[in-house]
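User: Fold this, then the next.

Assistant: Folding the first:
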Amino acid sequence: MSKAPQQQVGTPSASSFDLKLPYAIALFTAGAVALVLVARNTDGWLPYGSLWQLAFFLLYGLFTIQIGYMSRAGHVSFDRIAQVASILTMGPVPAAWVNGLASLLWPLQRLREGKPLREVLCACLHNSGLMTLMILGCGQLYVLLSGPLPLTVLDARTAGLLLVLIVSMQLVNEFLMAVYLRLKDRAFRWTLHDFPLVMETGAALAGVLVAIIINRMELPVIALALTVLALAMIALNQFARMRNRLEALVEDRTLVLRDKMRELEELAAKDQLTGLVNRRFADVTLFQCIEAFNRSQREFTIALIDLDHFKSINDRYSHETGDEVLRRVARILASGCREKEVLARYGGEEFLICFPDKGVAAAAQICEALRHAVQAADWSEVAPDIRVSLSAGVAGMQAGLTRSTLLKSADARLYKAKHAGRNCVVAS
């Protein structure tokens, strides 16, 4: 079993093709040249097999590629069976060009699916070059280590050589595919996918079994064994497709649940009336800022803001009017705060602002600007003759203070602002 590159619908970018197509051409050319050179310097093009075996493995290679499935790594097929079996039956050279031809022909069927000719040509050349080099190189390694050809018996030494053959084929396939996918996707990282890897290993072992059967058994036994194996491949194909569908379903459900959890977290952290963060979120922020202050002594200031005479607004106009006042005040305050400053609705008509990295004087200046903005706003659209103002108490973090004592310090200054006639900011 091996992986072929997954083709995307649409036309890839020019820069992507500029890298992939030359690589595919170079890989195909390298495979063809290596095949000719090895054939001239060894026992020729068909040292162990016969013409009917060539025809059989060409058709069998196409069949094992076709009985595949799409995974995240691309098209995963069972052609490792045909590759290993052909090496152990005919030798590396005929196995390389027969499987290379099968890999060259198979992507052509994508033209019927409407895939661009250039994209299909790239896949043909790449797949054929990859398979030719992999089978030829790993097969020659097996021969150089004195691996028996054709394979008819299995002993401990031969089993070790077959393990070398299977592992080397897997590594070469994965490496050359990683290069191709790296050109296709610049962020690609070489990773081995567990399920396809297990199936590919099983396919390679099945290829050893097929080779022994072909080299030792009579034609009826060979036909029966190949029929049983074909049915097993079809069953595994259906299982893999079902597994992919289940994985996709689980992934979709996980994304939906993650989005729902994010929405719930946002709802839990937000005040529904004003859209600001709520008291719970503000208390967590206070705790974090105090911890940061205790570690690094970085300045940190808070301000408690309270709307003046808000109860009379509710009593005189209505609670709906009061709610609209709160929403508009929240927007005014938010427009005057930086992104790193946390603005929260801390109580009924009370707001809290956390000023990281700001001292009391700078925070008080911002609060004064906010007070002026609220007072100067046009409130006539909310209710006739309505007046809205705020009072604020500003307190800076000091060594030894806790969340509770820091809030008490700001609340004490807010109390001073109220008793000073309201509509003012007190920072000392």
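Now the next one, as you asked:
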Amino acid sequence: MLTNRAIWVIERNFGRVLTLGELAVACKVSPFHLAHAFGEATGQSVMQYVRGRRLTAAALALAGGATDILELAIQSGYGSHEAFSRAFRAQFGTTPQAVRKAGSAAGLALVTALDMLEEGRADVASARLERAGPMSFVGLWGHYAFSAIRDIPEQWARFMRAYQHIPHKADCAPVGISIGFDGDGEFDYLCAVQVVDGGWAPPELARLDVAAQSYAVFQHRGHVATIRSTYTAIWNHWLPESGRTARDAPIIERHNPAFDPGTGLGGLEIWIPVADRRSILRNR
């Protein structure tokens, strides 16, 4: 499992500064792919986990009597005492000096090593490949981290109140679009509907144009709240085993015609933009 490989690399190389790019190379995938796989499987970003582990090591060292805070800062990947102290306070709600003075890490929210994850997976074997686009969408934007996706249903409730006022719908089924993932696992999410070319957005909504490209399309048949299991199977199993790689482009969730927003049942399709890995290597 890809996420398990990333955890192993992080823990094995705990004594040096790690970047998302270096971890992705070690796992033989793109940074975009690794960010998705790790976030979907664990609910946190790769670099949040790395920072939390390194700051935890620093907190334990301070509680054990370490006196040189600048040296600890550098070992933890920070270039200055001030930057380290800001990150330490953001992580634990206290200062390095206070932990050193107390001689204890009791009460701190220490980040322990993640256990290797179970290999159980959703069924993604029936994926199909499809070429689509260009496409235009109108919808409502939100910004999230993997740890805060619980707020997305409320965004959908606000969007559906505006849905009926959107003109020129090309397809009545609403879609969810994820875009702009960064190293900290934060991303933009658009609750939207596809519109015909030239369709405009009401003032409170936004328009997104998506270029033509190839997609791997997956069925998620369970309750929408369990969609993470399908994403985990896609990122950790189907893509590594398929000979294809994900493009850094919008990911689209298309609700099935039978989807019931009141119950979360009825299923949806997940459209992942992909390219053949061999063609990418030839073009480098």
